[in-house]
Amino acid sequence: MKNVLVGQSGGPTAVINSSLAGVYETAKACGAPHVYGMEYGIQGVLEGKIVDLDTVLPDPMDIELLKRTPSSYLGSCRYKLPDWHSPEGEAVYRQLFEILRELDIGYFFYIGGNDSMDTIGKLADYGAHVGSDIRFMGVPKTIDNDLMVTDHTPGYGSAAKYIGVVMKEIIRDATVYGTNYVTIVEIMGRNAGWLTAAAALARSGDCEGVDMICLPELPFDLDRFVEQVYHLQKQKPSIVIAV
Hints:
Number of strands: 8
Radius of gyration: 23 Å
Structural class: alpha/beta
């Protein structure tokens, strides 16, 4: 059993540390001599910023606290690996794989979203090119819930709940004046409408919910949108739209 290296990348979520704890606990249960953490993702590895997680998680309670700690415990980065087919790009990969060899790494985990999965894919491709036996594995994480061939991504559920609660509060606030009022709430999600669709969670026995939801998967027609707003305001003075 060789050592394990794990890192976090991209935007933080409320549960990204739970994935880190899962990798650590499982690696130790499988007999990994050491589980190393990348400080500030793959960029930190290139700068030699690596911590032995055994020294910072010595007690089971530390792991339980980690699971309940939001944001990225190891730090993050937005570093994008270059194409290894160029001489300049391959130099970066040679440096990385030399560091992995020195640490006797057999398993490389990267927790993140689209860009992080791109990093894992590039490392796996280069590893196959040079005949490395290191296993490169991506751990899904993104509030956008848009990673291919995944059922769902940790991070989406907590963000969806947050949006449902916030939209409920906005709807309440938007009705206090009794005048014609249009509130448009822009919700992120790259090119996927999962988070915007979560605005529907505001509807319940104590809240009528949002009046319109515009998803990126459907073409946006400005004239039709304005017409819908016009008809909605004939029915009620204050409307709330999630976009």
